[in-house]
Specification:
Strand order of the largest sheet: 1-2-3-4-5-6-8-7
Radius of gyration: 15 Å
Distance between the termini: 22 Å
CATH topology: Aminopeptidase
Organism: Chitinophaga japonensis
CATH class: Alpha Beta
Largest sheet: 8 strands, mixed
Keywords: Transferase
Domain N-acetyltransferase: 9-163
CATH superfamily: Gcn5-related N-acetyltransferase (GNAT)
Order of helices and strands: EEHHHEEEHEHEE
GO molecular function: acyltransferase activity, transferring groups other than amino-acyl groups
Protein name: Ribosomal-protein-alanine N-acetyltransferase
Number of strands: 8
Oligomer: single chain
Structural class: alpha+beta
């Protein structure tokens, strides 16, 4: 199921057929460096099943595949997830395979993801969480209109964005 798209990217739900791509992302230590520990293949497969089940339980939230429209190749994932302990707050996130870093995809995903969020959710604030040392992601967040809100947890910053014209 398509969530949203950009000129070059399609964001859609993961399916069981995406197990190899899901593992390439979640098993990659470079990609997961600032997110969580990289997963083994077995743990990644279980995590994929869990994510697929969550689509029905949490409409409008989840971890989704990011694919190039030209060839359907999954190059990363995009997410809208509850902030732990955040009383109904959602945070936006992304992870891209290293071959796709530095190509503007992160900015494109966040801009389109924000438009999707503000166009389809009743909430008026969207959050993002970064580790303090993840300077590249903080630059993307600032470029996309997010503002630092608070130190969220040990080594993590909470950012927020409110709608402008969506």
């Amino acid at each position: 199921m398509k969530i949203f798209e950009t000129t070059h990217l399609l964001v859609r739900q993961f399916t069981a057929a995406d197990a190899d791509s899901f593992f390439l992302i979640n098993g990659n230590e470079q990609v997961m460096r600032y997110i969580r520990p990289a997963k083994s293949r077995e743990d990644s497969d279980a995590f994929l099943e869990e994510n697929i089940r969550l689509y029905a339980a949490n409409p409008g939230a989840g971890r989704w595949a990011v694919a190039e429209k030209s060839n359907g190749q999954v190059i990363g994932m995009f997410s809208l997830l509850p902030v732990q302990g955040g009383a109904g707050k959602l945070h936006i996130g992304y992870a891209l395979l290293p071959a796709y870093w530095g190509k503007g995809y992160a900015t494109t995903l966040l801009e389109a993801g924000c438009a999707h969020f503000f166009g389809s959710h009743p909430r008026t604030t969207l959050y993002a969480i970064t580790r303090q040392e993840n300077v590249a992601s903080e630059k993307v967040l600032l470029k996309c209109g997010f503002r630092f809100s608070e130190l969220f947890a040990e080594h993590e910053r909470l950012w927020k964005k409110e709608p402008v014209f969506y």
